[in-house]
Amino acid sequence: MEPVDALHEIAFWLERDLAPTFKVQAFRKAAAAIDGVDRSGLEARLASGALARTKGVGSRSLEVIGQALGGAVPDYLQALRDTERETLNDAGEALLGQLRGDLHAHSDWSDGGSPVELMVETAALLGREYLAITDHSPSLRVAHGLDADRLTEQLDLLEAIRASRQATAGGNAGGKSGRSGTAAIRVLSGIEVDILEDGTLDQTPEMLDRLDVVVASVHSKLRADSRTMTARMLGGIRDSHTNVLGHCTGRLVQGGRGERPQSTFDARAVFDACAAEGVAVEINARPERQDPPDDLISLALEAGCLFSIDTDAHAPGQLDFLRLGAERAATNGVPAERIITTWPVERLLEWTSSRR
User: Fold this and answer.
1) Which of 40, 209, 218, 242 could serve as a FRET partner for 284 with CA atoms 20 to 30 Å apart?
2) pTM here?
């Protein structure tokens, strides 16, 4: 296999297994350090010792590159491939097979760890038909949220990525593009916009009008009283730009950030508003969130809500969290026809634009 592919796949599995970020980044940096160098050039650098002195290439990465150049699957990669991981129940596997896309993913434009291009490439390799890039809005300064100017720049980048992938698809029989996966994946523009304390959305209406998908979430003052939080959430839901209500309780149940209790709000009122306004309730697939909890998924079902199973991925390997969301939805009896991420992209886009 190609050394760059091996390094990227190792990073994917490490992210999938929630390894420390520094460990993942070591392999991504090594991949970046040799990207664009052809096989013969790498072989020459390996033989001369120059590769070992290349910035970003550590001892483990050097071993991986050498074994890949020798025609073998590197030992470290094979060990990761062979690692026993949790399997889904039958219902979860069946629902996962029906999911077409992911409407909540972050890049290094805000608090994600990888470029948009790598997020898209990984989603394509995982068989996604569409991926929405939904970086944060400006009030979330800790996440380097996008103001209108930066969001405009990102929209230009997304258009360039679409054009490049379409050109690649047109130049390859069968629509394949080497290690870039299936070029047919649709890259959607989006945002995870903060619902501000007064219930308004943290981006200009003009910019929100330009986006394919708007995920609205609360990120601050999560311990507000129920009346305050309910009013805030209802304001965001009733904004005609909102398509998906993101991680509605804000809870954390595990992980490096510790635990955080769920917000208190009138869930019946919130889910009734989602059903009435045509806003999908996100089933956030991140293992540390598992949001909403099971009882609120049941309540949203009773209210007649639509759902969106999303990864909230902040790194390429986390895009595989979709399987965890599929199992939670299936276990809670959410029918596929009420999950918007099972829809073909044209139907999805018709729906996301219908309120604006």
Assistant:
1) 209
2) 0.90
Ordered per-residue pLDDT tens for the chain, 356 residues: 999 999 999 999 999 888 988 999 999 999 999 999 999 999 999 999 999 999 999 999 999 999 999 999 999 999 999 998 888 999 999 999 999 999 999 999 999 989 999 999 999 999 999 999 999 999 998 999 999 999 999 999 999 999 998 887 765 544 443 344 445 899 999 999 999 999 999 999 999 999 999 999 999 999 999 999 999 999 999 999 999 999 999 999 987 777 999 999 999 999 999 999 999 999 999 999 999 999 999 999 999 999 999 999 999 999 999 999 999 999 999 999 999 999 999 999 999 999 88
Q: Which helix (H) or strand (E) holds 44?
A: helix 39-48
- Which secondary structure element, helix H or strand E, spans residue 101, and what is its range? strand 101-102
Reading the block at residue 9, the tokens are 């796949």
Distance CA 75, CA 81 (A): 10
Burial of residue 11 (number of CB atoms within 10 Å: 0-12, 13-18, 19+): buried
Residue 56's Cβ-count burial label (10 Å; 0-12, 13-18, 19+) is middle
- DSSP structure string for 190-254: EEEEEB-TTS-BSS-HHHHHT-SEEEEE--S-TT--HHHHHHHHHHHHHSTT--EE-STT--B-S
d(CA 356, CA 353): 6
Contact 102, 313 (CB under 8 A): yes
CA separation, residue 99 to residues 18, 130, 182, 241 (Å): 23, 10, 16, 24
User: How many residues comprise the chain?
Assistant: 356
Task: Give the span between the Cα atoms of 198 and 192, in whole angstroms.
Answer: 17
DSSP state of 133: E
| CB of 264 closer than 8 Å to CB of 225 | yes
How far, in Å, CA of 169 to CA of 257, rounded? 41
Q: Which residue's structure tokens are 């898209």?
A: 120
Cα separation values, 212 from 130, 134, 137, 182, 294, Å = 11, 10, 15, 21, 29
DSSP state of 339: B
